[in-house]
Each structure stands twice: as C-alpha cells, then as structure tokens.
Design goal:
Blueprint: H1 4-21, H2 23-26, H3 29-54, H4 62-78, H5 83-105, H6 110-130, H7 132-135, E1 141-142, H8 150-176, H9 179-189, H10 191-196, H11 201-227, E2 229-230, H12 232-235, H13 238-251, H14 258-276, H15 281-295, H16 305-314, H17 317-322
Antiparallel strand pairs: 1-2
Helix pairs in contact: 1-8, 3-8, 3-11, 3-13, 3-14, 4-5, 4-6, 4-11, 5-11, 8-11, 9-11, 13-14, 14-15
C-alpha cells in the first residue's frame, strides 16, 4: 500500500513531466534545449540515487556508464542499426558492464569505493581514446543525425529523455516499495548488521549498481544521436560524474522525487549564471551549491517546510525588528 507521501511524489512528477512536454508547443528551441537538459540530468540523478541514495555508496561511475552508452549507441548506428534498437543495445550493454564490474568494485567501501569508481571513468576514457581503429580515438566519432528540422528533432529528443526519466522514476518507486529497497536502506544504515539478519548484501548492491547504470546507458546513446558527434573528453567528463551526485544531494538523496527537483534547480541555476556571469558562472554556482548542501544536508525535499512557516509566522513584525 502506497503512503500519502509516495502518491504526492507520483502526482508531482506527473505534473512536472506534462509541463516539460508542453514546452515545444509553447516556447522556442532554446527553452526546449533547457527542458532536454533537465530531463536528461533528472534521469541520470535518479539513476545515481539507486546506489548513492538508497544504498549509501558514493559512486562516481556515472560518466563511465554515460560514455559507454554513447559509444555503444554510436557504433551500433554506424553498423546499420536503427537508432531505437541501438539505444536498447546500449542500455543492455552498459547494464552488463555494471553487473560484471559490480561484483569486483562493490567489495570496496567508503572512500575506497569512491576512488575506485572515479578510476573506472578514467580507465574507460583511456581505453576508448587508445582504441582508435574502433572508437576513432581522440578524433571522436560522427553519429548518424536524426532526420527532421531542428525543432522537430529537439521535440523528439525531449520526449525520449522524458520517457527515460519517467522509466527511471517508476523503477525508483518500485524499488522503494519492494524488499530490494528495504534491503538497500538496511545496507545504508549498517551493512554488517544487514548481512547478519539475512540480507544478501552482495546481490542487493550489484542490483543497485546495475540500476544506476541501466538508464545512464540509454541517456548516453540518445545524447549521441542528438548531438551527432562524440569524443572521449566529452563523453567521459569528470564534471558530469560530479554534477549528477550534487543534483541528487541537492534535491534529497534517497527520496523519490528529490533527484528530479535537484536536477531542475541545478540546471536553471547553471543556465542563469552562465547567461549573466560568463567569467564567474562556475565559481558562483559552486559556492551556492556548497552553501546549500552544507546548510541543507538532507536536500530541498527533506526540509520541514511546515515547521519553518510556523517559526516565521510565530514572530511578529515587532519581534522581528527587535531581533
């Protein structure tokens, strides 16, 4: 039986999805591009939430999963596969990679796991860069472009990214309501105790790691088709693997809709500072994000807004002036 909070989260995400989906009809290509970024990063943040939010493992493998998805999707299309099939192949390929890798890297814990997951990004990037006969190496790869006018292509990409985002959210809800979600939270609280009471911690962690990779692979493949060109530096960007956990933490790691909220807030803040403070945009954004995470460690969705409003309303203007 779903709780009231879960139902509210589902309704809020449904309204948010419809609102983003209407943007191509009521706004221009620029606004549609921002909507694509929000949907894409929301899907990536939801993916990270399985391993980082529910399980509490500080994973920085997102860029590796995204990059591998880009290249599997691109190479599949260049081999003659239709784009839609290439995206599914990329998703399955990345999930298989995560399943094989998870049995090894998930033996590490804490900062050792974090360092190991960053190393995966660098190793995969170096392999792709060096394997020039297949991947194009540092020169990158051209990917068959989607057919249609820029507006039509942008709208199509938006709807696909929204579909991936919704699929990731549905998976989040299902995990949250299942024995898997209970087991992952037990691991987060105390892995040794969870193992003692019968939770198959290894299997559960691998499942979370695969889920954290699954949707990243699809997003990467769709992104490659959208931009029409990929290279190792862009596809395996360390900046990406840092931004995604920050988005989830900003909204509320371990919550249902928190990663979506965090992605939306982060993308809009980034766009605002990029447009108005070109030279200092990343520095200002970094300071704000550090401030928010430091003072809101639980994220935006874990703030007790009722208590906050009561506290504000309890203070009269005179008392406020005296304070």
């Amino acid at each position: 039986m779903m709780s009231r909070q879960v139902k509210i989260s589902i309704l809020a995400v449904a309204v948010f999805t419809v609102a983003l989906g209407l943007i191509p009809a009521i706004a221009g290509n620029y606004e549609t591009r921002i909507a694509i970024s929000v949907a894409m990063f929301a899907a990536l943040a939801l993916s990270w939430n399985f391993i980082g939010g529910f399980t509490g493992y500080p994973s920085f493998s997102t860029a590796a999963f995204f990059g591998i998805g880009c290249y599997i999707g691109a190479l599949s299309q260049r081999a003659g596969m239709p784009a839609e099939i290439a995206w599914v192949v990329a998703m399955i390929g990345v999930a298989g990679f995560a399943a094989a890798l998870g049995g090894i890297i998930l033996r590490l814990k804490g900062h050792y796991f974090a360092i190991g997951s960053i190393a995966i990004v660098e190793v995969t990037r170096l392999i792709v860069s060096s394997w020039g006969s297949v991947t194009g190496g540092g020169d990158g790869l051209n990917v068959p472009l989607m057919t249609g006018t820029p507006d039509v292509v942008a709208a199509r990409v938006l709807y696909i990214m929204l579909g991936v985002m919704v699929a990731a959210f549905v998976a989040t809800v299902l995990v949250d309501q299942s024995r898997l979600g209970f087991g992952l939270r037990c691991i987060h609280q105390n892995e040794d105790a969870a193992d003692m009471v019968g939770v198959d911690t290894t299997r559960f962690k691998i499942a979370a790691y695969v889920l954290s990779a699954l949707f990243c692979g699809m997003v990467g493949a769709v992104y490659a088709s959208w931009v029409g060109y990929i290279d190792p530096t862009d596809s395996f960007s360390i900046l990406l693997t840092v931004k995604v956990p920050v988005m989830a933490l900003l909204g509320g790691a371990g919550t249902l809709a928190g990663p979506i909220v965090g992605a939306g807030v982060f993308v809009l803040l980034e766009e605002f500072f990029w447009a108005n403070f070109l030279q200092w945009n990343r520095a200002i954004l970094g300071v704000i994000i550090v401030f928010l995470i430091f003072f809101l460690p639980g994220g935006l969705l874990k703030i007790d807004y009722r208590a906050l409003l009561k506290k504000i309303s309890a203070r009269s203007p005179v008392e406020g002036a005296r304070g």
